TrEMBL record:
Top-level lineage group: Eukaryota
Name of the protein this chain belongs to: Helicase-associated domain-containing protein
Organism of provenance: Saprolegnia diclina (strain VS20)
Lineage: Eukaryota, Sar, Stramenopiles, Oomycota, Saprolegniomycetes
Amino acid sequence: MPKKKRKKWDHKMAPTFVVPRKEPWPAIYHGKDLAMVLRNLRRHACNYDADRFDGLEELGFVWRMPRGNHQIVTYWANATTKWLVNGMPLTSLVAQLKTYHEESHNLDIPAALTVEMQDGHQSTFHVALAYAPRLLRAHFYELSVADVDVLHGLGLFPELPQWAIVKALFSRYKERLHSDAVPVNFEVPATWENVYRGIRLGELAWYLVLVAHDPLQQRPWRFRRPGDGP
């Protein structure tokens, strides 16, 4: 099936596309959302034989979700009591958290609560919203400035500043301390500029190492754990 898609568009990143009910498209997929078919291929990849992997690789199948889209637990409204893990734009989760807060005046989200969301395709999913904060924190620096402002306004992740502040702060650290090694217990002192004051830079550096955000591949600093040498 993906082979037909590649022949038509020369890539595997399916937009919103419903398989036509005609040849040469396989009859089993007529009328189906192609993006959903591809998500299912990713989700069940652990069950594939090696030759199936080879065939998908040969077609240039995209295994990773595009930046800004990540997996979250959902209840598929079109199935019978079926919990799945599906791709969802991070910005949609931010918007839904904001809506929940406006209606409930808190973010104490019950684990069993699901909220209806459009995933950008034809199918409607019910997202288990309680999982959203931890997912957003793990991918915080993939969010837009506007989405970060929304999350900060909700009281979430105050320990994670805007990315522009993070970059400037590491430069300031190196300028003041003449070192690019950040101890895990380093907190910006009160004598520094207000915009940086109180930020736990050591913990922030540790977080950035863990999430391995792409812009950090050439980062101008090193994280130093207790006991590390100079």
